[in-house]
């Protein structure tokens, strides 16, 4: 495990590259461990930085991609990239250094928060292309949500075949059927937006300067409806990642977005993505329960969320 002393040693060696002149008043603290990254807050002489350390080898390319993408993303959307190190000399992992964003995750999502988030996404999504990106490459084939889901399932079956008991197979079959019925909405898409691709609650910050997003490791050009759908599910809340949103509140959220970004089939695609996420969540939570690795959340949490998602899929 990476220690605070490792971070301090890395700063001492690379302080000029990071832009730190002296480290007498240096403070380092851990601010969270996700599924793929370990994060540290570094404070020195009124400046704050985040050290993002890749926990898994497969995420290293994404971390480098995130760092480079942050150079191109317009100001006011994400953190400023400062330094990237893949030497593994002091910290035996890839890590990036980003400027820290002062902000909070709202305890409750009222109309103000829903509107601000929706409008900020709409501004991001105005950058559009006639291609979508997959694993860093431009794609000119039709966007096919059904095939994408089949690839997700294939990946889990290859890496974790033990999760596919009769219940999971039944649930996955329901998701497949639903997505196949809605696929025409996606294959008809002609233009694709710059997206964050993971704006769940934990990656959305409300600051004095408005909404900002962190964790851009999956960013690319994609269906803009995905970003809109990441916030919620219509059936259940899934803290700390998703809120429950339906009825008039859902209408308000989607209409706030559509006032800034016209999109005739957005609502239908957003709801289809919500089902897609239920399918990927059911596999992920099952895998977590069966192959638990300690992180910020207890095993019981994954078991409870598995049940929530399973129940919501049965209601399709």
Describe the structure.
- With 316 residues, the chain is of the alpha+beta class.
- It has 2 domains: 4-99, 2-Layer Sandwich (Phosphorylase Kinase, domain 1), CATH 3.30.200; 111-314, Aminoglycoside phosphotransferase (APH), C-terminal lobe (Aminoglycoside 3'-phosphotransferase, Chain: A, domain 2), CATH 3.90.1200.
- The chain has helices at residues 4-18, 60-72, 111-125, 145-159, 166-182, 184-187, 224-229, 247-258, 266-290, 299-314; strands at residues 27-33, 37-44, 47-54, 81-85, 95-99, 128-129, 132-134, 137-139, 192-195, 204-207, 210-213, 220-222, 232-233, 243-244.
- α4 (145-159) runs antiparallel to α5, α4 (145-159) packs parallel to α9 (266-290) and α9 crosses α10.
- It is globular and about 60 Å long.
- 34% of the residues are buried.
In short:
The protein is an alpha+beta fold. The chain has helices at 4-18, 60-72, 111-125, 145-159, 166-182, 184-187, 224-229, 247-258, 266-290, 299-314, and strands spanning 27-33, 37-44, 47-54, 81-85, 95-99, 128-129, 132-134, 137-139, 192-195, 204-207, 210-213, 220-222, 232-233, 243-244. It contains 10 helices and 14 strands.
């Amino acid at each position: 495990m990476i220690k605070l002393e490792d971070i301090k040693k890395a700063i001492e060696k690379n302080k000029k590259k990071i832009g730190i002149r002296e480290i007498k008043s240096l403070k380092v603290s851990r601010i969270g461990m996700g599924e793929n990254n370990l994060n540290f807050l570094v404070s020195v002489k009124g400046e704050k930085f985040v050290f993002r350390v890749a926990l898994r080898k497969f995420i290293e390319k994404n971390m480098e991609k995130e760092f480079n993408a942050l150079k191109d993303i317009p100001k006011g959307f994400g953190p400023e990239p400062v330094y990237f190190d893949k030497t593994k000399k002091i910290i035996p992992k890839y890590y990036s250094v980003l400027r820290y964003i002062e902000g909070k995750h709202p305890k409750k999502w009222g109309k103000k928060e829903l509107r601000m988030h929706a409008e900020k996404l709409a501004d991001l999504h105005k950058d559009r292309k006639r291609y979508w990106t997959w694993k860093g490459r431009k794609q000119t084939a039709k966007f096919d949500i059904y095939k994408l889901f089949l690839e997700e399932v294939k990946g889990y079956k290859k890496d974790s075949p033990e999760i596919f008991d009769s219940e999971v197979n039944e649930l996955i079959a329901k998701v497949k059927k639903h997505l196949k019925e809605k696929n025409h909405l996606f294959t008809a898409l002609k233009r694709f937006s710059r997206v964050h691709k993971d704006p769940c609650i934990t990656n959305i910050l409300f600051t004095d300067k408005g909404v900002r997003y962190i964790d851009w490791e999956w960013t690319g050009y994609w269906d803009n409806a995905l970003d809109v759908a990441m916030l919620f599910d219509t059936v259940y809340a899934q803290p700390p990642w998703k809120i429950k949103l339906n009825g008039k509140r859902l209408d308000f959220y989607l209409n706030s977005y559509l006032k800034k970004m016209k999109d005739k089939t957005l609502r239908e695609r957003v709801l289809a993505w919500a089902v897609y996420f239920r399918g990927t969540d059911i596999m992920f939570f099952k895998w977590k329960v069966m192959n638990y690795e300690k992180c910020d959340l207890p095993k019981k949490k994954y078991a409870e969320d598995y049940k929530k998602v399973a129940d919501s899929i049965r209601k399709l």
